Amino acid sequence: MCSPEGATCLCIIFILNLLSYCVCCYFTFAYVDLHFTFDSKTARFIATSIVHSKLDYCSSLYYNLFKSQLNRLQHVQNSLVHAVVRAPKFSHTTPILKSLHWLKIDERIEYKILSLTFKLLYTAQPPYLYNLISFQPPRNTRSLSVVTLARPPTHSSLKITSRSFRYASPHLWNQLPHSLRQPRLDLSPPDSPYFHDHLTSSASPSPLLSSITPSFFHSNLKTFLFLKSYPP
Questions:
Q1: Are 53 and 77 in contact (CB under 8 A)?
Q2: Is the pLDDT of residue 111 over 50?
């Protein structure tokens, strides 16, 4: 278990790392904005491939970080929007973000964690992360119809504990729509002794319905998070 002093040091490291990314992002798109003139399509491509890749790098580590720190990343994205579409400095960014189909920072972080969770369920790889998740035994008939992950008990009051992948993954996964969590028809309940045998003996280790392919999952996940970013 991480001590309070160790947790404080980790938080400082995260914040310093985040600040360095913010500075790097600012310099990147400021250079592009000042020295080159691109059409809208090219500007979006550069923004996605260069700046967004920096915003997304290790972004799952920023889950549930202090709002004041996440706002720094959101400010970077907002500034990027103005650079891409040449919008006035003080114009409202939310409609522009929505028109570009860009998720906000909070939802980008959740997308990263949920994508990794799906990969673990779909491939059971890598083992060191796959072993961190477990399946919730069904408590009623309704819970049998979806794949639910068990949330480990929190034995510490430190906020950093709930930010770890082991806690964040089931918390976010269990909020997904049922259409993304449907179980395989031949799968035994998680509390059955045959559950893991079914997974290991099958051609696919995934407990999810075969129609939930990576492309299907990621497409619908972005739609789900997009509506969360921009409620109708």
A1: no
A2: yes
